[in-house]
Design brief:
A 5-stranded antiparallel β-sheet has the order 2-1-3-4-5. The protein has 2 helices and 5 strands; from the N terminus they run αββαβββ. It has one domain. With about 80 residues, it is of the alpha+beta class. The model has no long low-confidence stretch (mean pLDDT about 90).
Length: about 80
């Protein structure tokens, strides 16, 4: 997942402002924040990230083992 975020940030074909991170908040379940907020604060541990979305499309999902950027996990090529 760290590789996915690094690619979003450094690949000029992606606009990082279009991405959001879904993370597990201990008491209120999964919450979502813009990728830029996640990186700026650093309060959310990496292991709590559950999804990375571009709009409505989940490009990375821990539970479903989806990685549309690198094609790892159970993603269809």
């Amino acid at each position: 997942m760290q590789d996915v975020i690094a690619r979003i940030l450094h690949d000029p074909s992606f606009d990082a402002s279009c991405f959001a991170v879904g993370y597990d908040e201990r008491f209120s379940g999964v919450r979502e924040a813009p990728l830029s907020d996640f990186l700026a604060g650093g309060e959310i541990p990496w292991h709590r990230i559950q999804t990375i979305r571009a709009g409505a499309l989940a490009v990375w999902d821990r539970q479903e083992r989806r990685d549309l950027l690198f094609g790892s996990g159970d993603s269809e090529a």
